[in-house]
């Protein structure tokens, strides 16, 4: 059976990433355990030793291009996975690398890529323990990395509750200007949150606040956002100047920020801010709170006027 179709309605783009994952859970049936042991969080979590498992990919032409040094591409592959481990409050351990290489792949480029991967692995105490190489058709060049980790008190997305205060660990937007290659995964901050009092949920921001926050909310909660409190990155400020509308769209939609989004019990919020400031030199950014969702109502609401926020982050395989 040919794996491709000319009928858009019969293709995966008719579903989009989120619906496709739901279908795959159905197809897998009993072979796929429920979250957090299976799909649904930043990492899969197996008991009783709190082992973490995650997997992420890097595609030429989508996640990096010719302007990107090979070494930074290699670093990015590992750091994308490390950000998932950080979101669970864990420490990374071992990785498997799979490469899909066209025959004309430059050995010089590949050396730089692998050396960059090794540099990041040594920095974050991670071992590359094996993997696979497969020949692909040009110009498809991709790499996939599977990473294990360990968390003594793992953080999950699903623990948030109404009344919790929302925070992000850093400024957002315009990552394409360079941050998507040079970011540092928030390993230390994630571990800190896993032990901090009152932290109920956490995830990393990879597809934009507008897409990722509803995942933390689940079906029963809505995010009430103080739009004036959303922190723009230096690149966003440079790109937008005084155009606040454009600035908010970059903050909400751009993705690849790799900051942590987390929820804290309101009674513990001020204490956490003080402790965070003592530990990291500046407070986290308080961006809003969580409230009960009104049936099938919006999950993103402007705190200023109570109206739905019409933003969408990046979703793979979603038709425009």
First and last CA, distance: 28 Å
**Relative strand content:** 15-25%
Separate helix tally: 9
At CATH level 3, the topology of the largest domain is Phosphoribosyl-aminoimidazole Synthetase, Chain A, domain 2
Average pLDDT taken over every residue? 94
General form: globular
Biggest beta sheet attributes? 6 strands, mixed
Number of domains: 2
How many beta-strand elements? Answer: 11
Low-confidence stretches: none
The level 1 CATH classification of the largest domain is: Alpha Beta
Secondary-structure blueprint:
Blueprint lengths: L15 H13 L15 E3 L4 E9 L10 H18 L3 E11 L5 H17 L3 E9 L6 E9 L14 E4 L10 H4 L4 H9 L3 E6 L4 H9 L3 E5 L8 H7 L3 H10 L6 E5 L4 H12 L4 E8 L7 E3 L18
Parallel strand pairs: 3-4, 8-11
Antiparallel strand pairs: 1-2, 2-5, 3-5, 6-9, 6-10, 7-9, 8-10
Structure characterization notes:
The chain has nine helices and eleven strands. Helix 2 runs parallel beside helix 5 (187-195). A hairpin with a 4-residue loop joins strand 1 and strand 2 (51-59). The chain has 320 residues and is of the alpha+beta class. It has helices at residues 16-28, 70-87, 107-123, 179-182, 187-195, 209-217, 234-240, 244-253, 269-280, and strands at 44-46, 51-59, 91-101, 127-135, 142-150, 165-168, 199-204, 221-225, 260-264, 285-292, 300-302. The model has no long low-confidence stretch (mean pLDDT 94). Strands 7-9-6-10-8-11 form a six-stranded mixed β-sheet, with helices on both faces. It folds into two domains: 33-150, 2-Layer Sandwich (60s Ribosomal Protein L30, Chain: A); 165-302, PurM-like C-terminal domain (Phosphoribosyl-aminoimidazole Synthetase, Chain A, domain 2), CATH 3.90.650.10.
């Amino acid at each position: 059976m040919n794996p491709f179709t000319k009928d858009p309605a019969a293709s995966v783009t008719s579903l989009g990433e989120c619906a496709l994952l739901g279908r795959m859970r159905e197809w897998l049936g009993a072979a796929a355990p429920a979250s957090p042991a299976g799909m649904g969080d930043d990492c899969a979590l197996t008991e009783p030793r709190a082992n973490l498992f995650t997997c992420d990919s890097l595609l030429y032409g989508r996640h990096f291009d010719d302007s990107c040094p090979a070494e930074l591409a290699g670093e990015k592959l590992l750091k994308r996975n490390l950000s998932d481990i950080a979101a669970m409050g864990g420490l990374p351990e071992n990785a498997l690398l799979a490469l899909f290489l066209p025959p004309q792949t430059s050995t010089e480029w590949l050396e730089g890529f692998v050396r960059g991967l090794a540099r990041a692995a040594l920095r974050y105490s991670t071992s590359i323990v094996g993997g696979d190489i497969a020949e692909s058709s040009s110009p498809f060049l991709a790499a996939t990395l599977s990473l294990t980790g360990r968390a003594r008190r793992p953080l999950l997305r699903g623990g948030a509750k109404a009344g919790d205060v929302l925070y992000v660990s850093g400024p957002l937007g315009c990552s394409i200007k360079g941050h998507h290659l040079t970011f540092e995964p928030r390993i230390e901050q994630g571990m800190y949150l896993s032990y901090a009092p009152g932290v109920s949920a956490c995830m990393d921001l990879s597809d934009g606040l507008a897409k990722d926050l509803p995942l933390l909310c689940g079906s029963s909660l809505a995010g009430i956002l103080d739009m004036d409190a959303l922190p723009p990155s230096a690149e966003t400020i440079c790109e937008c100047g005084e155009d606040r509308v454009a600035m908010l769209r970059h903050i909400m939609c751009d993705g690849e920020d790799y900051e942590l989004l987390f929820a804290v019990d309101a009674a513990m919020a001020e204490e956490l801010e003080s402790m965070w400031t003592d530990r990291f030199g500046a407070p986290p950014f308080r961006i809003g709170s969580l409230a009960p969702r009104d049936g099938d109502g919006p999950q993103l609401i402007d705190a200023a006027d109570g109206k739905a926020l019409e933003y969408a982050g990046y979703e793979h395989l979603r038709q425009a």
